[in-house]
Task: inverse folding
């Protein structure tokens, strides 16, 4: 069985496991106060060109979203996201569980447009009854999005400027950030993201770590952020587990280097699919490829390959997702192409 | 200044105040255990043809929605409502504050359609990842809706059957229920509502009471419902205040009698508007009339009449709402018509 | 049956009902923007000697506590209260429902002592692990307390100074404030309370209103307080109901005048009890009298008088509560004394 | 610097890291549906003598407590725990954050006594106003406790029987369970725990894992437990990380074998402390040793050894904690003894 279902089906990049081995019996303080966490943070600050950034390591994406959003929002506020945003659908109501509404904006291939955001904000404040409504308190975007698409630097600049005008923190979910940063044709760098957002996270789980997301506040984290992490059950006793992994990922550019493999293999796959006449649901520049399959074809292929069910296209067709990753090999690609 | 802004701008129907006076110095138990609350409940059970119904009195609509929804839902569930549903917009995120998501369905003049509901539910359960999503746990409808429209008995039957099939409690927000029950042409009775829903409330605040909504569980309330009311700060010490009001409203059919005045005056107003060439935004059969006004016309009229701002129609026009009530007089109507 | 079970067993003071009658058909804006609410607020500001105070009317005590505490606290904070504090026991976990811990301090006849508070705060900050604990974020006291006792001005000053030193808002629950203010021997005035606390409420429900508590922020309410009131389902559409009541209560000193009746009758009752050899559980200077009854005596008396069960004293005795109110008459007293 | 501050200062037991290496490039399903998670669960079921148990892996102790308690409790319920219980103090209000109260019972060396529990429950239900209070909905005990003490089988039986009588689920926090199970003199086995509780967890983080706690429901987990784990941000994408670790820990009895080292070294240390005249704060039979140090002595010792600050004993003395673990070596012990 070939495996293209997602980008988190292996363990960790071998360099990470090696570092865990090498440091295993060192006695270190808990809760992120170990020297590896410090080193990782320092390296991330450099990579973000953001010497004052406050950085915290959390275990996973839903956790990172729930902790960041619920600590940054005021009680009377909700978060604006694309209707397709991960927080709006696939996190089991984790944001609402913390007491906050998610406002769904229309999307274009998973991205929100600054025009739509502006209209939403204008209409909200123009409504004379808006004191009876939850206030917009934050804007959430994902990059890459749930459809693998990327914001351009111009789009990011526009959204960021709009957020600043309305005093709304901008939060970027970078669960797959590595794959976005090395996509061909993107003009958005890690430093740009640190510049244009108020908080974002650098995904580890989907980019070679066993677990872990690095939450970056380029300027300042909310007061007593650590206590609130603990309050949400998200403070790891052995903070070293995250620290060592991110220290490794941000040494010698490993994070970007291994991300490139996902892009290279995705591009090869995309080309092969197109050559064989498959219909792409949209043109994703990163490691997620969405294909419209005829249902029986989907069933047949599913006997030899694992891929992701995405959404119904129509009665006879389904959108499925093939994901490559830091670990995808040319041999796997070759086998997949034979089956297509 | 004429006042057509809403249906809660007066105090209470005089019979209610009289009864409060008459019973004022009686010493009664608190928390709803007084004989007036008992009598009111018994009269409501009769009116609903529902001898086993459990009934609780709460102070207002947002409170009733938040208490009912958050006590009926399981923790992993959200509530389905029309995108225009009151709980989705105008309650300051009160549902999400209790930890639950509101799923917005498309609407037709404020109503959800059973076809849309069915598609939503089918798609949800067809999605192989639905264990990663908040579950639909209840359906919320309002009757009359936020646009003054009404479900037909057939529509209610269809939605109810669908809910039963998916084991979803059906909750009807009756903040303006009186106005719906006496609308010309409706085929839905109070007994129908008790039959087709799992919980609903009979609005008092907007239909002649100082405050108060009667929450009716035709079969059974959640266990320890009173404790949860208290937990949400919604248990009135002097339960008599609600009991006496609903006892009065459900004596000699007062609730329906006073509701009729709102419909009669609304119909007169609608006719006058149409004769003068005004454009109705939609055809509401109850006491809320939505009119599309040219912006300067709106401004001019606003100097002599209070009405509700509803939504922008386009750059030059706005949708406004005129509401009649149990208290609207023919003299007020006459004065308004002169201004139109 | 005589009724001394609590101080909220009648309707409202007749002057309040009269004013509700007189203003009933006036058409007024909702949500507290009516002129009666404005007038009431202005009169309360004067009575508090606090011209800048922000004032909001809520319907009941648990609601006022839950709204104030959950809007003033930061997310990582809890509230300090006496173990016997109303919020700690008799509000069904309403504070915890909003996500915040109640820290129980030892009490002396229902009051917290500044020494205990100081020790608690010192120990908290001395604990090197305190970042792993919920922070103290507010101090809650009740005046009169749940045992009818009162803080002296010196005690209030000391607690207030300690709160200021630790930057903790001080919140005073005045559900029975009237009875405290007119107690013989108290040296605490309404202006003192406004001076020494950061937020407090003036109880209406137990002091002659149908419902209603006036929440006073002597300096400033939290931003968007009204939206958060709505979010907790506590914003009354007909704000006039509260406004008119408090306008009446703060006209010509009515609030204090009617409170005095409760104290006069309580003092007479206390004297009678002592003369007849009853044992007082503690010496309460307000309208709640706690008596230790032998269980069979309690049962016998219970056939003719309603009083409150308070707590088990020992196997053979029980503490019960007799409450007088603004409405207690000499005739009722006389009948009770005959039974004792 | 010697390190006796806690039992989670190393990485993982080498066998765990080896297994992570060996399986690293296998492509496995996420979210706990991998074969290692299955194998680990099966081994735990056997060890618990509980073939029907439902088992879930979470990342840490506070998370496990918050997820279990908030999913098992009804909305109107709180959890009973010793005043010293971890959930009551050192988890930043994580339980209250989910909306539930913690009821603090008196404790004896960290344990609750069934007599105190019984009195609490009797008093609660005897109180005629208990519908106005949060209901007891669960009993939480830790084993070993926060003071390293252990329940006897008789104590566990009594508490369990009492819980059954009141229909209260019994939850055992086993963050250090391994150390309790192999303590000399304990008569409580893993199978006993599965028999006498309704849910418990087997601690990994403090007993040789990088992270991870195995939550065991001997009979049945709450419906849609996985969705609620996700909702609290606690569902790991790479469930294999936990599965592989627990599979290793429960292969060939590794969990108990490595736990024994902590007990052996703790006993040696205890003996040495007593011989040198140190005063033990209490007699803990597991791996945490609490010593009363004179403050200057504490300071001097602190220059060469890391230990835990526990609580102030009096002005001149402090209680500190020395913890041994699966990794403590005789050489470390020897060095520590020289310093004492």
Result:
């Amino acid at each position: 069985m070939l495996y293209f279902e997602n980008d988190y089906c292996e363990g960790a990049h071998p360099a990470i496991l090696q570092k865990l081995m090498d440091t295993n019996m060192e006695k270190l303080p808990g809760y992120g106060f170990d020297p590896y966490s410090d080193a990782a943070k320092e390296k991330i600050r450099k990579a973000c060109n953001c010497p004052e950034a406050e950085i915290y390591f959390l275990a996973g994406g839903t956790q990172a979203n729930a902790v960041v959003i619920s600590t940054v929002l005021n009680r009377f506020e909700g978060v604006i996201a694309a209707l397709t945003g991960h927080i709006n659908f696939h996190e089991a109501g984790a944001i609402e569980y913390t007491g906050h509404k998610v406002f769904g904006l229309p999307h274009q291939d998973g991205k929100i447009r600054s025009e739509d955001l502006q209209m939403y904000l204008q209409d909200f404040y123009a409504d004379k009854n808006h004191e009876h409504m939850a206030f917009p308190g934050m804007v959430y975007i994902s990059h890459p999005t749930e459809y693998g698409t990327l914001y351009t630097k111009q789009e990011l600049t526009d959204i960021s400027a709009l957020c600043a005008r309305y005093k709304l923190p901008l939060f970027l979910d970078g669960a797959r950030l590595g794959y976005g940063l090395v996509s061909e044709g993107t003009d958005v760098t890690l430093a740009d993201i640190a510049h244009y957002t108020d908080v974002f996270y650098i995904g580890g789980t989907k980019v070679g770590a066993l677990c872990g997301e690095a939450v970056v506040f380029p300027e300042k984290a909310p007061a007593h952020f650590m206590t609130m992490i603990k309050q949400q059950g998200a403070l790891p006793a052995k903070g070293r587990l995250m620290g060592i992994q991110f220290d490794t990922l941000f040494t010698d550019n490993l994070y970007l280097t291994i991300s490139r493999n996902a892009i290279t293999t995705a591009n090869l796959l995309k080309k092969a699919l197109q050559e064989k006449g498959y219909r792409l649901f949209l043109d994703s520049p990163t490691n997620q490829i969405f294909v419209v399959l005829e249902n029986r074809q989907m069933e047949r292929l599913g006997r030899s390959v694992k891929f992701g069910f995405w959404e119904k296209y129509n009665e006879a067709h389904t959108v499925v997702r093939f994901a490559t990753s830091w670990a995808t090999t040319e041999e796997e690609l070759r086998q997949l192409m034979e089956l297509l």
Notes: Chain A is about 40% helix and 20% strand. Chain A has a mean pLDDT of 97.
